[in-house]
Each structure stands twice: as structure tokens, then as C-alpha cells.
């Protein structure tokens, strides 16, 4: 498993329950960054741009929950590849010649 030092700073998706008066609604899925303001085994998932209805700044996670979040729900950031040529795809000009 991942050590606490490897977990700090990771960005993950966490589920935040909606209003308990409406149990049939799916929970929010919010991007969060793992921090460790206290000693292990506790981590704090600080929300990044949460919906306005969420009043808390984040969610406390155990070491196991933080490890599972990093392994199963990491935030994948894609590079901007619009400037690069994609050699796997044919351009319309090349397609017409075939």
C-alpha cells in the first residue's frame, strides 16, 4: 500500500452525501486534495471548487480510505495536446487521397 508521505498532495475524487432529507439522490462527486494537518492515520481531503450547497471545506479520511481513494478514484489531468500532430489519425486531406 501507499505510505502517508506518498498520499499527501494527491488529488482524488470523494463522494459527499447530499441533504439527508432526500436519501434517493446520488452523492456529489467532488475533487479534493489530500493533506495531513494531524498525525497519521488521519488525512483531510480539502475540496477543490465544491458545489455551493456543500458548506464544509473538506472531509476527514482514515489512512485506508485515503489509500483507496488514490488507488481507485484519482484525478487524471490530461495534457493539452491540441498543438501536437496526431500521427495516428489521418487528416481530411490524407483521407481523400485514399
Structure description:
The protein is of the alpha+beta class and 98 residues long. It has one domain. It contains 3 helices and 4 strands, in the order αββββαα. The chain has a 4-stranded antiparallel beta sheet with strand order 1-2-3-4, with helices on one face. The longest helix is centred in the C-terminal third of the chain and has 10 residues, at 63-72. The radius of gyration is 20 Å and the shape is globular. It starts with a helix and ends with a helix. The mean pLDDT is 83.
Condensed summary:
The mean pLDDT is 83.
Count structural domains. Answer: 1
N to C succession of SSEs? HEEEEHH
Structural class: alpha+beta
| Overall pLDDT metric | 83
Query: Helical content, roughly?
Result: 10-25%
Strand-residue proportion: 25-35%
Described by the principal axes of the CA atoms, the overall outline is: globular
SSE diagram, text form:
Elements: H1 4-7, E1 11-16, E2 28-35, E3 42-47, E4 58-62, H2 63-72, H3 92-97
Descriptive keywords:
single chain; 98 residues; alpha+beta; 4-stranded antiparallel sheet; 4 strands; 26% strand; globular
